[in-house]
DNA sequence: AAGCTAATGACAGCCACTGACAGTTGACAA
DNA sequence: TTGTCAACTGTCAGTGGCTGTCATTAGCTT
């Protein structure tokens, strides 16, 4: 962030992202055109596409910050932890540190609102899920390395991540459609659902 | 399928689907335009969009048949089975009956090729994953009803489906990128991965 | 055969996105 | 300071997915 040029670029990107999120969360994703965003920042449409790979990319940029943080957190977990526990702690850490990560661009409330937009907009949800799949692949490799396994020969890391990821996406869904849309609620749901994963595999739920 | 009109409509739809799959699997999804498909069937582009909600819809239509079959299979599973077991059996049944379901439109080989296209085309994979999420919601409701639970009050059905779905999507991924692209391989992977889900939750993989 | 209705084709138009090229503006050395 | 280079931007033209509209065609009904 040394030169004036770099600062200018950063400002343009931030402005585009801020405006995009603002419009997406108020007017709605589909009701916002790229031209709208570009016009509001007073740049050409072409410039928007130089900063973001597409409209989707801008909509998922904030979430991307937290994803990157999550991956880092898994990498930094103490090696003695079991894989599931490492992922669980990393995710909880991630939610704790959201504030510091996102706040430099938009207030956390905006981030949360954007999350709802993603979950309620089909095309965004689809893109989000695809990226989650990529993240799962990354995490599987991290875990395999931690445990000294070959990720392609031993399916266990991928299975573990798949189970974890499945529960997490379901948690996101429930959270974003539920009444309590706070970070505390997210933490509570995460812990609760992960704790139930074990019994879900084996138990019969009927009382008799 | 009584009137001539209905038969004609069916034939047009089948022709569009066949041509679409043919082009997608040979030329590639992105390299095929809707105009190409419409031209090959000798209808207007507008007509294509009257039969399919979009290009994606045509690409996922075959998979949609198997999904519908899977949901039915879960519904028909004997009530005494535990939820996980019911889903597992339903999925295996589904693969067994693919032939009879798909063959009336395209040969099974085409179906399998289309599967690879979906997994290797980002936008299609995204759409596929989103639809899988919808399927999971449906299955969660089916299971809840089976077990006499309120799906909104008791998260266990959704947790179980999330775990199952996570493993299944990971299985699809591994299958479609692996060497053995046969139905037998799919069955083997499915069983193997599901069997490992339990230990993935608790175990530590290191040998010491 | 005549009238109704569903299906289609033929436009026109919006929007996301891309390539190409020219103009502008910081960076950096002479 | 100035001149040169490289990076950044705007403009324009074009492609492709998708939609609304309306006139035309073709099957159904009586």
UniProtKB/TrEMBL annotation, chains A, B:
GO terms for molecular function: DNA-binding transcription factor activity; transcription cis-regulatory region binding. Residues 10-70 form the HTH tetR-type domain. Residues 33-52 bind DNA. PROSITE patterns: HTH_TETR_2 (PS50977). Keywords: DNA-binding, Transcription, Transcription regulation. InterPro entries: Homeodomain-like_sf, HTH-type_TetR-like_transc_reg, HTH_TetR, MftR_C. This is TetR family transcriptional regulator. The lineage of its organism: Bacteria, Bacillati, Actinomycetota, Actinomycetes, Kitasatosporales.
């Amino acid at each position: 962030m040394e030169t004036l040029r770099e600062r200018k670029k950063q400002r343009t990107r931030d402005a585009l992202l801020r405006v995009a999120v603002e419009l997406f969360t108020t007017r709605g994703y589909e009701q916002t055109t790229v031209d709208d965003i570009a016009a509001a920042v007073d740049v050409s449409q072409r410039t928007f596409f130089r900063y973001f790979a597409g409209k989707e990319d801008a909509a998922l940029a904030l979430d991307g910050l937290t994803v990157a943080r999550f991956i880092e957190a898994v990498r930094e977990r103490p090696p003695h932890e079991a894989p599931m526990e490492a992922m669980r702690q990393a995710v909880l850490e991630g939610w704790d540190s959201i504030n510091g990560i996102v706040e430099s661009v938009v207030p956390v409330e905006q981030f949360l609102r954007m999350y709802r937009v993603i979950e309620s907009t089909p095309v965004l949800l689809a893109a989000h899920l695809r990226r989650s799949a990529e993240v799962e692949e990354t995490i599987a490799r991290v875990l395999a390395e931690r445990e000294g396994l070959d990720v392609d020969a031993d399916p266990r890391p991928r299975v573990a991540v798949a189970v974890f990821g499945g529960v997490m996406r379901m948690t996101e869904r429930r959270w974003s459609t539920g009444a309590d849309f706070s970070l505390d609620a997210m933490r509570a749901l995460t812990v609760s659902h992960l704790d139930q994963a074990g019994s879900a595999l084996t138990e019969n739920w009927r009382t008799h």
